[in-house]
Amino acid sequence: LAKTTQPISMDSYEGQEVNITCSHNNIATNDYITWYQQFPSQGPRFIIQGYKTKVTNEVASLFIPADRKSSTLSLPRVSLSDTAVYYCLVGGGYNKLIFGAGTRLAVHP
Amino acid sequence: GAVVSQHPSRVICKSGTSVKIECRSLDFQATTMFWYRQFPKQSLMLMATSNEGSKATYEQGVEKDKFLINHASLTLSTLTVTSAHPEDSSFYICSARSGGQTASGGYTFGSGTRLTVV
Which of B3, B8, B51, B105 has most Cβ atoms within 10 angstroms of its Cβ? Predict the structure, then answer.
């Protein structure tokens, strides 16, 4: 299972764009990259998943370079409610999900 | 989308007693479920993988006799914390594999159970 490295914490302000980068140097060919969001005392919530290039949904974008050794989660115009821990995971098929430390995002007024 | 229901959301028990936590997949069948434990300000730690109709696979360092897992049906997995002690107080989260690369990322999580042992 590919190990991931993310910044421990980030700070932002309401209305700004936040980019969280995750390194996964030993990602396997069949691995997908998935990001989850977790609020205190709740289970993780799926944000976005991708394999290569760019993926966009209603809440975020995911940028994956050609070598797939990193990925960047982009949150447009964050609000206070985006304050949470964000986890980057890599894996595929029927692998168990192993969580890294995650990035604690604090959005300030 | 895929929904996983976890109950109870909070439980307080006395030291030495046992507590059962249920995890149900509401609109899909889950042959595999996962149990995690999360301490304050820490990440989720995988405890075990639960497979329907077979014994669970525990991660290294997790006591299988203390954390009993039963996955008797395709929609229900239970975690029983036996002879609970204050150090077992934690946030327990289940997850079910909801399909390959689906809109939920292939895995859906329960809302978690806050266990406090007094």
Answer: B105
A83 vs chain B: nearest CA distance in angstroms? 14
∠ at Cα A21 (A19, A25), nearest 5°? 165
- Best to test chain A binding among B25, B41, B109 (most A CBs inside 10 Å): B109
3-state secondary structure of B87: helix
What Rg value do the Cα atoms of chain B yield, rounded? 14
One-letter amino acid of A66: A
Closest CB to A43: pick one of B32, B43, B110. Answer: B110
A36–chain B nearest CA distance, Å: 9
pLDDT, tens digit (0-9, with 9 covering 90-100), for A18-55: 999 999 999 999 889 999 999 999 999 999 999 999 99
pLDDT in tens, A90-99: 986 667 888 9
- Which two structure tokens, joined as six digits, stand for A70? 């990193």
Residue B104: the pLDDT is 59
**CA torsion angle A49 B32 B10 B81 (round to 10):** -140
Which residues from A are below 8 Å from B103, CB to CB? 46
